[in-house]
Amino acid sequence: MSSQFTLDQIQLQLDRYPPEQKTRSLQAWDAADELLIRYAQQQLSNDQTPLLLVNDLFGTLACALHAWQPVQWTDSYLSQLATQHNLQQNGLSAVSQIASTEACPAFAAVLLKLPGNHSFLRYQLRQIKQQLPDGASIVAAAKAKDIHANLLQIFAEEIGPVSASLTEKKCRLITAVCDKNQAVPKKPEFPLVWPVELPLQDQTLTLDIVNHANVFAREQLDIGARFFLQHLPIVQPEQRVIDLGCGNGVIGLALLAAEPQAQILFCDESYMAVQSSRENVSRLFPTASHCEFLVDDSMSQQPDLSADYILCNPPFHQQQAVTDHIAWQMFADARRVLKIGGRLRIVCNRHLGYGEKLTRLFGGCIHVASNAKFSVFEAIRRK
Ligand SMILES: C[S@@+](CC[C@H](N)C(=O)[O-])C[C@H]1O[C@@H](n2cnc3c(N)ncnc32)[C@H](O)[C@@H]1O
Protein backbone atom coordinates (compact mmCIF):
# COMPACT_ATOMS: atom_id res chain seq x y z
CA MET A 1 0.00 0.00 0.00
CA SER A 2 1.32 3.40 -0.94
CA SER A 3 2.32 5.90 1.70
CA GLN A 4 2.60 8.62 -0.95
CA PHE A 5 -0.31 11.04 -0.45
CA THR A 6 -1.15 13.32 -3.39
CA LEU A 7 -4.07 15.74 -3.46
CA ASP A 8 -4.13 18.74 -5.81
CA GLN A 9 -0.78 20.49 -5.09
CA ILE A 10 -0.12 18.61 -1.81
CA GLN A 11 2.38 15.75 -1.74
CA LEU A 12 3.19 13.99 1.52
CA GLN A 13 4.71 10.76 2.81
CA LEU A 14 2.22 9.41 5.37
CA ASP A 15 2.46 6.23 7.48
CA ARG A 16 0.17 4.55 9.93
CA TYR A 17 1.62 3.94 13.37
CA PRO A 18 3.76 2.12 14.30
CA PRO A 19 5.47 2.65 10.92
CA GLU A 20 7.38 -0.65 11.06
CA GLN A 21 4.28 -2.83 11.62
CA LYS A 22 4.25 -5.89 9.38
CA THR A 23 0.70 -5.48 8.08
CA ARG A 24 1.15 -2.28 6.13
CA SER A 25 -1.92 -3.03 4.09
CA LEU A 26 -3.81 0.06 5.22
CA GLN A 27 -2.96 3.61 4.26
CA ALA A 28 -2.85 6.49 6.74
CA TRP A 29 -5.65 8.55 5.20
CA ASP A 30 -9.09 8.06 3.67
CA ALA A 31 -11.50 9.94 1.44
CA ALA A 32 -12.97 11.75 4.47
CA ASP A 33 -9.55 13.33 5.11
CA GLU A 34 -9.44 14.40 1.46
CA LEU A 35 -12.88 16.04 1.72
CA LEU A 36 -11.83 17.98 4.82
CA ILE A 37 -8.57 19.11 3.22
CA ARG A 38 -10.36 20.36 0.11
CA TYR A 39 -12.99 22.06 2.27
CA ALA A 40 -10.27 23.90 4.24
CA GLN A 41 -8.45 24.96 1.07
CA GLN A 42 -11.62 26.29 -0.55
CA GLN A 43 -13.53 27.72 2.44
CA LEU A 44 -11.07 28.80 5.13
CA SER A 45 -9.16 32.05 4.89
CA ASN A 46 -5.44 32.11 5.65
CA ASP A 47 -5.95 33.95 8.92
CA GLN A 48 -8.40 31.43 10.40
CA THR A 49 -5.78 30.14 12.81
CA PRO A 50 -5.40 28.10 14.89
CA LEU A 51 -7.36 25.33 13.19
CA LEU A 52 -8.66 22.71 15.63
CA LEU A 53 -8.37 19.13 14.31
CA VAL A 54 -10.45 16.60 16.20
CA ASN A 55 -9.64 12.85 15.87
CA ASP A 56 -6.91 13.31 13.24
CA LEU A 57 -5.96 9.61 13.38
CA PHE A 58 -2.48 9.59 11.85
CA GLY A 59 -1.79 13.31 11.43
CA THR A 60 -2.83 13.50 7.76
CA LEU A 61 -4.82 16.67 8.45
CA ALA A 62 -2.06 18.21 10.59
CA CYS A 63 0.45 17.67 7.77
CA ALA A 64 -1.79 18.74 4.87
CA LEU A 65 -3.22 21.79 6.69
CA HIS A 66 -0.02 22.76 8.49
CA ALA A 67 -0.29 26.37 7.25
CA TRP A 68 -3.35 26.85 9.51
CA GLN A 69 -1.25 26.21 12.67
CA PRO A 70 -3.24 23.13 13.67
CA VAL A 71 -4.05 22.17 17.22
CA GLN A 72 -4.90 18.48 17.58
CA TRP A 73 -7.41 17.31 20.17
CA THR A 74 -7.48 13.53 20.51
CA ASP A 75 -7.92 10.69 22.98
CA SER A 76 -5.22 8.59 21.36
CA TYR A 77 -1.55 8.64 22.29
CA LEU A 78 -0.88 6.56 19.15
CA SER A 79 -2.47 9.31 17.04
CA GLN A 80 -0.13 11.78 18.68
CA LEU A 81 2.89 9.57 17.96
CA ALA A 82 1.74 9.00 14.36
CA THR A 83 1.36 12.75 13.85
CA GLN A 84 4.82 13.46 15.24
CA HIS A 85 6.29 10.80 12.94
CA ASN A 86 4.48 12.07 9.84
CA LEU A 87 5.27 15.75 10.51
CA GLN A 88 8.92 14.90 11.00
CA GLN A 89 9.29 12.80 7.86
CA ASN A 90 7.75 15.62 5.83
CA GLY A 91 10.05 18.27 7.33
CA LEU A 92 7.14 20.04 9.10
CA SER A 93 7.40 21.62 12.55
CA ALA A 94 5.62 20.14 15.59
CA VAL A 95 1.98 21.06 16.21
CA SER A 96 0.19 21.57 19.49
CA GLN A 97 -1.35 18.29 20.78
CA ILE A 98 -4.00 18.37 23.49
CA ALA A 99 -5.40 15.24 25.16
CA SER A 100 -9.16 14.69 25.22
CA THR A 101 -9.08 14.75 29.03
CA GLU A 102 -8.12 18.43 28.84
CA ALA A 103 -10.59 21.17 27.96
CA CYS A 104 -11.18 21.80 24.26
CA PRO A 105 -8.58 24.39 23.22
CA ALA A 106 -9.46 27.76 21.65
CA PHE A 107 -9.66 27.83 17.82
CA ALA A 108 -10.67 29.98 14.85
CA ALA A 109 -12.06 27.04 12.82
CA VAL A 110 -12.72 23.38 13.57
CA LEU A 111 -12.68 20.16 11.52
CA LEU A 112 -13.70 16.80 12.95
CA LYS A 113 -13.24 13.19 11.82
CA LEU A 114 -16.06 11.04 13.13
CA PRO A 115 -14.88 8.98 16.15
CA GLY A 116 -15.76 5.30 16.54
CA ASN A 117 -18.40 5.83 19.24
CA HIS A 118 -21.36 8.20 19.47
CA SER A 119 -20.96 8.80 23.19
CA PHE A 120 -17.51 10.24 22.58
CA LEU A 121 -18.83 12.28 19.64
CA ARG A 122 -21.47 13.84 21.90
CA TYR A 123 -18.87 14.58 24.53
CA GLN A 124 -16.59 16.25 21.98
CA LEU A 125 -19.38 18.31 20.38
CA ARG A 126 -20.54 19.51 23.80
CA GLN A 127 -17.01 20.69 24.64
CA ILE A 128 -16.48 22.27 21.22
CA LYS A 129 -19.74 24.20 21.48
CA GLN A 130 -18.40 26.04 24.52
CA GLN A 131 -15.70 27.54 22.26
CA LEU A 132 -17.83 28.00 19.12
CA PRO A 133 -19.32 31.50 18.58
CA ASP A 134 -23.04 31.73 17.83
CA GLY A 135 -23.57 31.20 14.07
CA ALA A 136 -20.11 29.62 13.49
CA SER A 137 -19.89 26.12 11.96
CA ILE A 138 -18.25 22.85 12.81
CA VAL A 139 -17.46 20.71 9.77
CA ALA A 140 -17.15 16.94 10.08
CA ALA A 141 -16.43 14.20 7.55
CA ALA A 142 -17.37 10.56 7.56
CA LYS A 143 -18.16 7.59 5.35
CA ALA A 144 -21.61 8.04 3.80
CA LYS A 145 -22.72 4.67 5.25
CA ASP A 146 -22.10 6.02 8.78
CA ILE A 147 -24.18 9.17 8.21
CA HIS A 148 -27.76 8.37 9.16
CA ALA A 149 -30.61 10.22 10.86
CA ASN A 150 -29.40 9.32 14.38
CA LEU A 151 -25.98 10.74 13.72
CA LEU A 152 -27.30 13.97 12.24
CA GLN A 153 -29.59 14.28 15.24
CA ILE A 154 -26.57 14.17 17.57
CA PHE A 155 -25.04 17.13 15.72
CA ALA A 156 -28.39 18.96 15.74
CA GLU A 157 -28.94 18.39 19.48
CA GLU A 158 -25.41 19.24 20.55
CA ILE A 159 -24.58 22.13 18.17
CA GLY A 160 -27.54 23.41 16.13
CA PRO A 161 -29.00 23.23 12.58
CA VAL A 162 -27.26 20.52 10.55
CA SER A 163 -26.86 19.67 6.86
CA ALA A 164 -24.92 17.02 4.92
CA SER A 165 -23.20 17.35 1.54
CA LEU A 166 -23.66 15.07 -1.43
CA THR A 167 -21.61 11.87 -1.41
CA GLU A 168 -18.13 12.09 -2.88
CA LYS A 169 -15.86 9.04 -2.98
CA LYS A 170 -18.33 7.33 -0.58
CA CYS A 171 -17.92 10.13 2.03
CA ARG A 172 -19.90 13.22 3.04
CA LEU A 173 -19.31 16.42 4.93
CA ILE A 174 -21.60 17.36 7.81
CA THR A 175 -21.96 21.04 8.72
CA ALA A 176 -23.59 22.08 11.99
CA VAL A 177 -24.16 25.75 12.80
CA CYS A 178 -23.85 26.76 16.44
CA ASP A 179 -27.09 27.91 18.08
CA LYS A 180 -26.22 29.29 21.50
CA ASN A 181 -29.89 29.67 22.42
CA GLN A 182 -30.47 25.94 22.18
CA ALA A 183 -30.19 24.13 25.54
CA VAL A 184 -27.41 21.55 26.04
CA PRO A 185 -28.99 18.07 26.28
CA LYS A 186 -29.24 16.77 29.86
CA LYS A 187 -28.48 13.16 28.84
CA PRO A 188 -26.17 11.41 28.61
CA GLU A 189 -24.09 12.83 31.38
CA PHE A 190 -20.37 12.30 31.31
CA PRO A 191 -18.67 10.30 32.70
CA LEU A 192 -20.91 7.22 32.89
CA VAL A 193 -21.01 5.50 36.29
CA TRP A 194 -22.30 1.95 36.77
CA PRO A 195 -21.87 -0.93 39.23
CA VAL A 196 -19.49 -3.79 38.55
CA GLU A 197 -19.42 -7.06 40.49
CA LEU A 198 -15.92 -8.21 41.38
CA PRO A 199 -15.67 -11.87 42.42
CA LEU A 200 -13.52 -12.26 45.53
CA GLN A 201 -12.60 -15.61 47.11
CA ASP A 202 -15.85 -16.25 48.96
CA GLN A 203 -17.96 -13.18 48.19
CA THR A 204 -18.75 -10.60 45.53
CA LEU A 205 -17.83 -6.95 45.90
CA THR A 206 -20.00 -4.43 44.02
CA LEU A 207 -18.32 -1.14 43.14
CA ASP A 208 -19.51 1.86 41.14
CA ILE A 209 -16.96 2.60 38.43
CA VAL A 210 -16.41 5.75 36.39
CA ASN A 211 -16.14 5.51 32.60
CA HIS A 212 -15.08 8.52 30.56
CA ALA A 213 -16.73 8.90 27.17
CA ASN A 214 -14.16 7.08 25.01
CA VAL A 215 -13.35 4.15 27.30
CA PHE A 216 -13.59 0.60 25.97
CA ALA A 217 -16.78 -1.12 27.25
CA ARG A 218 -17.92 2.22 28.70
CA GLU A 219 -21.55 1.10 29.09
CA GLN A 220 -21.10 -2.35 30.57
CA LEU A 221 -18.47 -4.88 31.55
CA ASP A 222 -16.80 -6.59 28.56
CA ILE A 223 -17.70 -10.30 28.48
CA GLY A 224 -14.03 -11.28 28.10
CA ALA A 225 -13.18 -9.16 31.14
CA ARG A 226 -16.08 -10.81 33.04
CA PHE A 227 -14.50 -14.25 32.46
CA PHE A 228 -11.00 -12.95 33.24
CA LEU A 229 -12.22 -11.57 36.61
CA GLN A 230 -13.04 -15.15 37.66
CA HIS A 231 -9.48 -16.30 36.91
CA LEU A 232 -7.18 -13.61 38.21
CA PRO A 233 -4.05 -14.52 40.18
CA ILE A 234 -3.53 -13.49 43.79
CA VAL A 235 -0.73 -10.94 43.86
CA GLN A 236 1.51 -10.08 46.80
CA PRO A 237 2.07 -6.51 48.10
CA GLU A 238 5.77 -6.54 47.13
CA GLN A 239 5.06 -7.59 43.53
CA ARG A 240 5.01 -5.03 40.72
CA VAL A 241 1.95 -5.64 38.56
CA ILE A 242 0.94 -4.05 35.24
CA ASP A 243 -2.69 -3.79 34.07
CA LEU A 244 -1.85 -3.53 30.37
CA GLY A 245 -4.55 -1.88 28.21
CA CYS A 246 -6.36 -1.04 31.45
CA GLY A 247 -9.52 0.60 30.02
CA ASN A 248 -11.59 1.65 33.05
CA GLY A 249 -9.14 -0.29 35.25
CA VAL A 250 -11.53 -3.09 36.13
CA ILE A 251 -8.83 -5.81 36.17
CA GLY A 252 -6.47 -3.84 38.41
CA LEU A 253 -9.40 -2.83 40.64
CA ALA A 254 -10.21 -6.50 41.21
CA LEU A 255 -6.59 -7.12 42.26
CA LEU A 256 -6.77 -4.16 44.65
CA ALA A 257 -10.02 -5.49 46.11
CA ALA A 258 -8.17 -8.68 47.05
CA GLU A 259 -4.88 -6.99 48.02
CA PRO A 260 -5.15 -3.20 48.60
CA GLN A 261 -1.35 -2.91 48.95
CA ALA A 262 -0.72 -4.33 45.45
CA GLN A 263 1.58 -2.06 43.41
CA ILE A 264 -0.25 -1.72 40.14
CA LEU A 265 0.64 0.29 37.07
CA PHE A 266 -2.45 1.04 34.96
CA CYS A 267 -1.50 1.82 31.36
CA ASP A 268 -3.37 2.39 28.12
CA GLU A 269 -2.97 4.38 24.90
CA SER A 270 -6.32 6.15 25.57
CA TYR A 271 -6.13 9.23 27.79
CA MET A 272 -9.71 8.70 28.92
CA ALA A 273 -8.95 5.09 29.90
CA VAL A 274 -6.03 6.12 32.10
CA GLN A 275 -8.06 8.96 33.59
CA SER A 276 -10.97 6.60 34.37
CA SER A 277 -8.60 4.14 36.07
CA ARG A 278 -6.97 6.92 38.09
CA GLU A 279 -10.34 8.22 39.32
CA ASN A 280 -11.60 4.70 40.09
CA VAL A 281 -8.56 3.84 42.20
CA SER A 282 -8.58 7.13 44.09
CA ARG A 283 -12.33 6.95 44.80
CA LEU A 284 -12.58 3.25 45.62
CA PHE A 285 -9.15 2.54 47.16
CA PRO A 286 -8.00 5.86 48.65
CA THR A 287 -5.12 4.15 50.47
CA ALA A 288 -3.68 2.80 47.19
CA SER A 289 -1.63 5.93 46.51
CA HIS A 290 1.29 3.66 45.51
CA CYS A 291 -0.49 2.79 42.21
CA GLU A 292 0.75 4.43 38.99
CA PHE A 293 -1.06 5.58 35.85
CA LEU A 294 0.53 6.01 32.45
CA VAL A 295 -0.48 6.75 28.87
CA ASP A 296 1.82 4.63 26.71
CA ASP A 297 2.04 2.62 23.51
CA SER A 298 1.92 -0.88 25.03
CA MET A 299 4.85 -0.82 27.55
CA SER A 300 7.34 1.20 25.51
CA GLN A 301 8.30 3.27 28.56
CA GLN A 302 8.83 0.29 30.91
CA PRO A 303 12.35 -0.91 31.72
CA ASP A 304 13.43 -4.50 30.99
CA LEU A 305 13.03 -7.04 33.82
CA SER A 306 10.84 -4.74 35.94
CA ALA A 307 7.43 -6.47 36.43
CA ASP A 308 6.34 -9.56 38.36
CA TYR A 309 2.90 -9.89 36.78
CA ILE A 310 1.31 -8.45 33.64
CA LEU A 311 -2.43 -8.85 33.13
CA CYS A 312 -4.02 -8.15 29.79
CA ASN A 313 -7.31 -8.37 27.92
CA PRO A 314 -5.68 -7.50 24.58
CA PRO A 315 -7.23 -5.15 22.05
CA PHE A 316 -8.19 -6.60 18.69
CA HIS A 317 -8.37 -3.31 16.90
CA GLN A 318 -6.17 -0.31 16.67
CA GLN A 319 -7.57 3.06 15.69
CA GLN A 320 -10.64 1.56 13.99
CA ALA A 321 -8.74 -1.17 12.05
CA VAL A 322 -9.15 -4.81 13.13
CA THR A 323 -5.68 -6.27 13.69
CA ASP A 324 -3.77 -8.68 15.92
CA HIS A 325 -0.45 -6.86 15.64
CA ILE A 326 -1.07 -4.93 18.85
CA ALA A 327 -1.62 -8.15 20.83
CA TRP A 328 1.68 -9.45 19.40
CA GLN A 329 3.43 -6.22 20.34
CA MET A 330 2.02 -6.47 23.88
CA PHE A 331 3.17 -10.10 24.29
CA ALA A 332 6.66 -9.31 22.96
CA ASP A 333 6.88 -6.28 25.26
CA ALA A 334 5.73 -8.45 28.18
CA ARG A 335 8.56 -10.89 27.54
CA ARG A 336 11.02 -7.98 27.73
CA VAL A 337 9.47 -6.22 30.75
CA LEU A 338 8.85 -9.27 32.97
CA LYS A 339 11.45 -10.30 35.52
CA ILE A 340 12.82 -13.84 35.22
CA GLY A 341 10.02 -15.97 36.67
CA GLY A 342 7.50 -13.17 36.04
CA ARG A 343 4.16 -14.05 34.49
CA LEU A 344 1.87 -12.74 31.77
CA ARG A 345 -1.80 -13.74 32.14
CA ILE A 346 -4.24 -12.96 29.33
CA VAL A 347 -7.86 -13.57 28.34
CA CYS A 348 -8.71 -14.01 24.67
CA ASN A 349 -11.31 -15.34 22.27
CA ARG A 350 -10.72 -19.10 21.91
CA HIS A 351 -10.49 -18.96 18.13
CA LEU A 352 -7.60 -16.48 18.08
CA GLY A 353 -4.91 -19.06 18.85
CA TYR A 354 -3.08 -16.78 21.28
CA GLY A 355 -2.03 -19.83 23.35
CA GLU A 356 0.21 -20.98 20.46
CA LYS A 357 1.59 -17.48 20.06
CA LEU A 358 2.55 -17.34 23.72
CA THR A 359 4.10 -20.81 23.50
CA ARG A 360 6.27 -19.70 20.59
CA LEU A 361 7.34 -16.51 22.35
CA PHE A 362 7.85 -17.84 25.89
CA GLY A 363 8.68 -21.49 25.13
CA GLY A 364 5.55 -22.67 26.94
CA CYS A 365 2.12 -21.59 28.11
CA ILE A 366 -0.30 -22.73 30.82
CA HIS A 367 -3.99 -23.12 30.01
CA VAL A 368 -5.73 -21.64 33.07
CA ALA A 369 -9.41 -21.89 32.07
CA SER A 370 -11.86 -21.80 29.16
CA ASN A 371 -15.57 -21.37 28.60
CA ALA A 372 -17.49 -21.59 25.32
CA LYS A 373 -16.02 -18.32 24.05
CA PHE A 374 -12.89 -17.35 25.97
CA SER A 375 -9.65 -18.83 27.26
CA VAL A 376 -7.27 -17.61 29.93
CA PHE A 377 -3.56 -18.40 29.43
CA GLU A 378 -0.46 -17.74 31.47
CA ALA A 379 3.12 -17.60 30.19
CA ILE A 380 6.22 -17.50 32.42
CA ARG A 381 9.45 -15.77 31.47
CA ARG A 382 12.07 -18.48 32.03
CA LYS A 383 15.21 -16.66 30.85
C1 LIG B 1 -10.03 -5.17 25.19
S1 LIG B 1 -9.72 -3.61 25.93
C2 LIG B 1 -9.49 -4.08 27.64
C3 LIG B 1 -9.86 -2.99 28.61
C4 LIG B 1 -9.97 -3.45 30.06
N1 LIG B 1 -8.70 -3.99 30.52
C5 LIG B 1 -11.06 -4.48 30.18
O1 LIG B 1 -10.73 -5.67 30.34
O2 LIG B 1 -12.26 -4.12 30.13
C6 LIG B 1 -8.10 -3.25 25.35
C7 LIG B 1 -7.52 -1.92 25.79
O3 LIG B 1 -6.23 -1.77 25.15
C8 LIG B 1 -6.05 -0.41 24.84
N2 LIG B 1 -5.02 -0.29 23.78
C9 LIG B 1 -5.16 -0.42 22.44
N3 LIG B 1 -4.00 -0.25 21.82
C10 LIG B 1 -3.08 0.00 22.79
C11 LIG B 1 -1.68 0.27 22.78
N4 LIG B 1 -0.99 0.30 21.65
N5 LIG B 1 -1.06 0.47 23.96
C12 LIG B 1 -1.76 0.45 25.13
N6 LIG B 1 -3.09 0.20 25.20
C13 LIG B 1 -3.73 -0.03 24.05
C14 LIG B 1 -7.44 0.08 24.42
O4 LIG B 1 -7.53 1.49 24.53
C15 LIG B 1 -8.34 -0.69 25.39
O5 LIG B 1 -8.60 0.08 26.56
Q: What does it look like?
A:
- This protein is 28% helix and 28% strand.
- The chain is α/β, with parallel strands linked by helices and 383 residues long.
- It is built from ten helices and 20 strands.
- The chain has helices at 31-43, 60-64, 77-89, 118-131, 149-158, 223-229, 250-258, 271-284, 325-337, 354-362; strands spanning 4-7, 10-13, 51-54, 71-74, 96-99, 109-113, 137-143, 162-164, 171-177, 192-199, 204-211, 240-244, 263-268, 292-295, 307-312, 317-318, 321-322, 338-349, 366-370, 374-380.
- The protein is globular and about 60 Å long.
- The model has no long low-confidence stretch (mean pLDDT 95).
CATH superfamily of the largest domain: Vaccinia Virus protein VP39
Q: Strand order within the widest sheet?
A: 5-4-3-6-7-9-8
Which CATH class of the largest domain is shown? Alpha Beta
At the fold tier of CATH, the topology name of the largest domain is Rossmann fold
Total count of strands: 20
Mean pLDDT: 95
* Broad shape: globular
Largest sheet: 7 strands, mixed
Our measurement of the CA-to-CA distance between the termini, rounded to an integer number of angstroms, reads 38 Å
| Multimerization state | single chain
Fraction in helix: 25-40%
Low-confidence stretches: none
Instruction: Please tell me the total number of domains.
Output: 2
Succession of helices and strands = EEHEHEHEEHEHEEEEHEHEHEEEEHEHEE
- Strand fraction band? 25-35%
Number of helices: 10
CATH architecture of the largest domain: 3-Layer(aba) Sandwich
C-alpha Rg (nearest Å): 22 Å
Decide which structural class fits the backbone.
alpha/beta
Bound molecules: S-adenosylmethionine
